[in-house]
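Re-run with default settings, no changes from the original entry. Doing this only to confirm the output is reproducible before filing.
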Amino acid sequence: MLSRTIAHDLLSIGAVFLRPEQPFTWASGIHSPIYCDNRLTLTAPEVRTHVEQGLKETIEQYYPDAQVLMGTSTAGIAHAAITAHLMGLPMGYVRSGHKDHGRGNQIEGRLEAGQKVVVVEDLISTGGSVLEVVDVLREAGAQVLGIASIFTYGMQKGLDRLAAAQAENHSLSDFDTLCQVAAEEGYIRPEDIDRLLRFRANPSDESWMNR
């Protein structure tokens, strides 16, 4: 099963850390038992192959009419490029803001109005950053079919935002699968799963930190 393979891969290379006893601190001050850096998949060839092949299969299954892949800046750019190469499709990416020189582009790469686009993202939490990319592409006249991402937390805020924006997302793996695989492989204790799921349900409620 792809979601379990990707979860195993992310854990094995340290792209995802689960540390319920020593939480990480987000910029917002919220304590989190998980840290995710999917950029590390690019430096692990076997894992990278699983990820890019998985993105290709996901796009072919859910977005068979895709004409262009657009990566999010910056983490989605390499994944969009490799996946587009495997699929024989053009790609580009969306900057977080307009360039302050040259033509002032925010969308890099050729994009024609009406083209059917899939956004490639590495991680979805609350959905804010990827939806900014979707908005930019829609404003440029693209028909955004949806998003293909490596990993999602499945937070309710993110699910609600995606639904409100009518932006479909399909991730290679997710928080629930990751917790199960992590427990099976000894990264966490089985009794930690409930705590982690409580965090996912409401990150602002830090009662999960109490056993």
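The two ends are 31 Å apart (CA to CA). The helical segments are 2-12, 45-62, 77-87, 128-139, 156-164, 175-184, 192-201.
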